[in-house]
Known about the structure:
Three copies of one chain form a homotrimer.
Chain A: H1 2-5, H2 23-41, E1 54-59, H3 64-76, E2 80-83, H4 97-106, E3 111-116, H5 121-128, E4 133-139, H6 145-159, E5 166-170, H7 177-188, E6 193-197, E7 213-215, H8 218-222, E8 227-230, H9 235-242, H10 246-253, H11 257-260, E9 268-270, H12 283-286, H13 293-312
Parallel strand pairs in A: 1-2, 1-3, 3-4, 5-6, 5-8, 6-7, 8-9
Helix pairs in contact in A: 2-6, 2-13, 3-13, 6-7, 6-13
Amino acid sequence: MTDLQIDTNGRLRHLLTLDGLGRERINALLDRAAQLRAGFRGGASSPRLLEGRTVVNLFFESSTRTRTSFELAARRLGAIVVNFDIANSSTSKGESLEDTLATLEAMDSDAFIVRHKENGTPARLAAHARKAAILNAGDGNHAHPTQGLLDLLTIRDHKNRIDGLKVVICGDIKHSRVARSDIHGLSALGVGEIHLCGPAALLPAANEFPHCQVDEDFDAALSAADVVIMLRLQKERMESLSGIRETDYFARYGLSHTRLARARSDALVMHPGPMNRGIEIAPDVADGPQSVILDQVANGIFVRMAVLAELLGR
Amino acid sequence: MTDLQIDTNGRLRHLLTLDGLGRERINALLDRAAQLRAGFRGGASSPRLLEGRTVVNLFFESSTRTRTSFELAARRLGAIVVNFDIANSSTSKGESLEDTLATLEAMDSDAFIVRHKENGTPARLAAHARKAAILNAGDGNHAHPTQGLLDLLTIRDHKNRIDGLKVVICGDIKHSRVARSDIHGLSALGVGEIHLCGPAALLPAANEFPHCQVDEDFDAALSAADVVIMLRLQKERMESLSGIRETDYFARYGLSHTRLARARSDALVMHPGPMNRGIEIAPDVADGPQSVILDQVANGIFVRMAVLAELLGR
Amino acid sequence: MTDLQIDTNGRLRHLLTLDGLGRERINALLDRAAQLRAGFRGGASSPRLLEGRTVVNLFFESSTRTRTSFELAARRLGAIVVNFDIANSSTSKGESLEDTLATLEAMDSDAFIVRHKENGTPARLAAHARKAAILNAGDGNHAHPTQGLLDLLTIRDHKNRIDGLKVVICGDIKHSRVARSDIHGLSALGVGEIHLCGPAALLPAANEFPHCQVDEDFDAALSAADVVIMLRLQKERMESLSGIRETDYFARYGLSHTRLARARSDALVMHPGPMNRGIEIAPDVADGPQSVILDQVANGIFVRMAVLAELLGR
Lengths: 314, 314, 314
């Protein structure tokens, strides 16, 4: 995968996964995001780095939140953004995904933001793209690299480092692309320990993350944690797979105020959103002083600007 | 409500209703709209007063007409406009409206244009907004303040005043936010008389508008009227509530050429659109010399520009 | 129809059909498209010829491909583009199409891109437009003039002429607006011969195109052809009208490598997209060295820019 996303001159060509991207490249993206943020917060107009470029949102799974974040990132840098309407598109008339890509690329589109329920679709498109860049906005349970980057930036902002931190990720790890991109990014930047918690049925295969600790006991894992990342629970999946009822889930895996007290007193509370308040996280924790959930959202724009600038900037 | 929309420095912070907004503030908005219109009509490019600002359309009820008007107003002033797709959004995945607002605001959105079927939703969001401005684009039967402003501007253009005019509003007053915002705006600017006409079942409670005359007899009310505002009739509602059939409705409450002759010869004919031709208004009246219906549409853009400039302009 | 699209000063006022537009005017549009393309390909930013202008996409039939092409063309020239959401619009609430047009025109919209399943809808709107330009993006089986222009430009690029060429169009000619606009455009520019091929049930009436040769035998028609234009087959229509099964269709009317060898060795292969690979065209032909299908897509943007510039440029 890494080969596909780096060109022969060593430049980032697509962003498909953080897996194998490397510490230096990830830090450079985070630095650029922080720099763009400083400019924006300082009231400067954003640099028109994407003036004259065209960015196409290709969301085969709907996600207004992520799509809007990419759209704002691209437009604030001056790009033209087209939201390709999959439901009414040629793809729905039987055209292959590769032909749809080729057609839109022939219209001089410079980048495609792709979300798809199947693992590997962005990579498949990257293999077919002639010149355009492919940005993975989430594929199956495989990767969501810009979410990984925004989580890294948020942690770095508050902790000034990733090295040596203890991070706990709790919820449906098995089906989560967010968890996977967080794990890849945190590992690349030298995190201390990663604990993956959740009901047995929602935990990953034992050998998928040999350097992570996988545990059903959330309380134990929280001890001395620096960062707690709660994942969104899909209710349908929870009941069918884990056999746990909604109310029981919160009792065992919900982040309450009491439970949070087991972590370090300055532990960060994170969530990729949208939240199920009262299911995986208590409202007072979501809105409490340790929550950096809205910082994550804000940083999402800036890491996406940084990635687009890196991929398309002349 | 007024307190929520005016900040402690006396500046307009949100636009939720014309009720209590006051003559001076309303006139200032109308003046600004007229000034922006003069510039645009004179061929000047619109001032980029919203350059670098982000405006989000949050339409929980679909209304292409109003949404497009706000979108054009914002974009002609240089804003980035995002049409938030409610049907596919996190809100539809169970996220609270407040969390959706907080998320979009964290993406540095500056204003939200809100339409919702429930009274008070824009005010509820205004109470939660940290910095962003909320513009009510219609909530339940409560208010539609920019429609009120565009109606005022249209009348002022043609009559050079609001003071002392006789205005008749006819149709489903009870369920109409347009009627309410018109009544608030006209009253603030010193209108002479307001007559509210329609079938008994579609009239407001007797004490809701003590300064208006409420009447089932449209013909009597029209006598010497300066302005006749016809409301769109929702057919489903008409039949179920008033027991009146479509054809009978036009006979009693439709604005025909003959009936219009009861008003002053220079009376204005207005309608917020979309029209049901032949139900509440005769085609030849809608297209006749006294109709200012398309002026209303045109002014809609300019009052929305004025409100956005007032709320977001630096 | 021609009268409607040319104003009294002889200027192009709307683009409804290529029928009767004339060689000089068509060549001028192709030249302008080629010039805009040269600038864009040379890396220059596109001229902001539509700065301050508003273009509305009014697609009553969904077509993401064509709509996106028009949208990019308009936005790259600096226009504001609004995608009018028909499904949620006043038109769907019973407003007449003419009222919808008048309303959007009152919002100072400068051009409407119209696609509709009924022949003549764009002309009907052109007859009602006060100042705005109407661009036909496909009406029924009547016309699709920008598709005709992009096909002409693509052929001219590769053959340096249209005069004297032999062009074969194959598929459902009867229901195809693409075929009609191609025939009108090619004829205006002095094409040599046009052969129309397909199953009898999908061929046009014998007298509709007296100057074309109409034939069920595709193999015979291909002999010495310079250009082969394959049309998309609508599967439902094929089976119900022609009684031919999908697999049999390819055997008789699909463009295979073997069959293409009957044409000139430098014959161009064209298709308006989206393609049904394996039904009307073999994958290796679609992707082969004679295929200019992606050139057609690319040229679509530039001919639409040229038409918009011609209609709206000051």
